[in-house]
Specification:
Radius of gyration of chain B: 23 Å
Radius of gyration of chain A: 24 Å
CATH architecture of chain B: 2-Layer Sandwich
Largest sheet of chain A: 7 strands, antiparallel
Order of helices and strands of chain B: HHEHEEHEEEH
Structural class of chain B: alpha+beta
Number of strands of chain A: 7
Helix content of chain B: 40-55%
Oligomer: heterodimer
Strand content of chain A: 25-35%
Strand content of chain B: 25-35%
CATH topology of chain B: Alpha-D-Glucose-1,6-Bisphosphate, Chain A, domain 4
C-alpha cells in the first residue's frame, strides 16, 4: 500500500513537472505600436534660441516645482530621472510616478526635450500631463530667457 | 437575473470610477511659497564648494549620497531609519486585547533628497524631499508618505550646509 502510494505520488510529481514545462512563459515584448509615434510627438517639445544647459536647468527645476525628487542627472548626456510618490486620488491606486527627460541639441538653434513618464508599471500615454509639464517648462524659459517653443513633437 | 445584472453594472461603475483619476503635472498655487521654504542663497560662494558642502551636510545627517553631477549642480541622497517606538509593542498588545485585532505600527522611514545648486551668482540651493513610511507588516503607509513640506526640515538642512561651509573655511 505504501509502495503504491509512493508510486502514485511519483507519478503525480512527474505529471506536474511535465505540465509545468508546458506552461507558457510570458515573452519579452519590445513591439512598437503605431500609436508610439503619436505618443512620442506629445512627449517631445523643441525650443528655439536657447542653450541646452538653460533648457536642462528649466526641466530640472520644473520637476522640483512639481514635487519630484531628482534621482539621477547627467548634464553631459542631457539625461534626468526623477520620481514622485503619487497618492491615489478619487480611489485610484497609489504608486511611484517615474519620469525620464532627455535634453539634446538637434541643431545650433534648436534644443529638443523628450519626457516620458510611468505610473507604477503603467506608461503614461495621456497627452494632458505632458502638455501641462511643457507649459511649465516653456513658462520658465520665457520668463527667464524669453525663449519660446518652436514646435510640439520631435 | 435582473438583480445580478444590476450588481455587475454596479461593480463595473465602481471599478470604473477607481481607474479614471487623471495624473496632474500642472503647478499648484502653493509653488512659490514652497519654493521659498525649500531654497536658500549661498551668494558669493564657489559652486563646487557649495556642492561639496551639500553632500557633507547630507552625510552629517545620516544620508548616503547616491548621485552628484557638478555640471548640472545636482546632489541626490537617501537615508533609511527605524522609527518604531519602544512603547509600540505594548500599545499593540493593549489594542489587541481591546479590539481582538493586531494593529500595524510604523516601523521604517525612507527619505530621498535632491539638491539643485544654481549656476547664477546668487548660488541658490533648491531642495526637494520625499518620504515613505512602512508599517511592521511590511505595507506602505500611504497617508504618511509623499512630499516633505515641514519648513523645519529644510531649515535644518540649510543650517547643516552653512556649518559645513564654515568648517571648510576654517580648514
Amino acid at each position: 500500500m505504501t509502495m503504491k502510494l509512493t508510486l502514485m505520488d511519483s507519478g503525480r510529481v512527474l505529471v506536474a513537472v511535465l505540465l509545468g514545462g508546458c506552461v507558457a512563459q510570458p515573452s519579452v515584448s519590445l513591439e512598437m505600436e503605431d500609436s508610439a509615434v503619436q505618443v512620442r510627438s506629445y512627449q517631445s517639445r523643441t525650443y528655439e534660441g536657447v542653450a541646452v544647459t538653460t533648457v536642462m536647468h528649466a526641466v530640472v527645476s520644473t520637476l522640483q516645482d512639481l514635487g519630484f525628487v531628482i534621482r539621477m542627472g547627467d548634464a553631459r548626456l542631457g539625461l534626468v530621472s526623477a520620481s514622485r510618490f503619487e497618492k491615489g486620488r478619487l480611489g485610484a491606486a497609489h504608486g511611484e510616478l517615474l519620469v525620464t527627460a532627455t535634453v539634446r541639441e538637434i541643431s545650433p538653434e534648436h534644443v529638443e526635450v523628450r519626457v516620458n513618464a510611468r505610473l507604477g508599471m503603467q506608461p503614461v500615454e495621456d497627452p494632458e500631463p505632458y502638455r501641462d509639464f511643457f507649459a511649465v517648462v516653456s513658462q520658465a524659459l520665457f520668463l527667464e530667457h524669453g525663449a519660446v517653443p518652436a514646435k510640439a513633437g520631435g | 437575473m435582473t438583480i445580478s445584472r444590476m450588481h455587475v453594472i454596479g461593480v463595473a461603475l465602481l471599478l470604473g470610477g477607481c481607474s479614471g483619476a487623471p495624473l496632474d503635472l500642472s503647478l499648484d498655487e502653493q509653488v512659490a511659497e514652497r519654493r521659498a521654504v525649500q531654497t536658500r542663497s549661498f551668494a558669493g560662494r564657489d559652486r563646487i564648494e557649495v556642492i561639496i558642502a551639500a553632500s557633507g551636510a547630507l552625510r552629517d545627517l545620516g544620508f548616503i549620497v547616491e548621485e552628484i553631477d557638478d555640471e548640472l549642480g545636482l546632489v541626490s541622497a537617501v537615508t533609511e531609519r527605524n522609527i518604531s517606538e519602544p512603547g509600540n509593542q505594548l500599545l499593540q498588545f493593549g489594542l489587541l486585547l481591546l479590539t481582538g485585532q493586531l494593529m500595524a505600527m510604523p516601523e521604517r522611514e525612507e527619505l530621498w533628497v535632491s539638491m539643485l545648486i544654481s549656476e547664477s551668482p546668487q548660488r541658490d540651493v533648491y531642495i526637494t524631499c520625499e518620504r515613505k513610511i512602512w508599517n511592521d507588516d511590511g505595507l506602505l503607509v500611504v497617508e504618511s508618505s509623499g512630499r516633505v513640506e515641514q519648513a523645519e526640515f529644510y531649515q535644518r538642512l540649510f543650517d547643516s550646509m552653512s556649518t559645513a561651509l564654515f568648517v571648510e573655511d576654517e580648514l
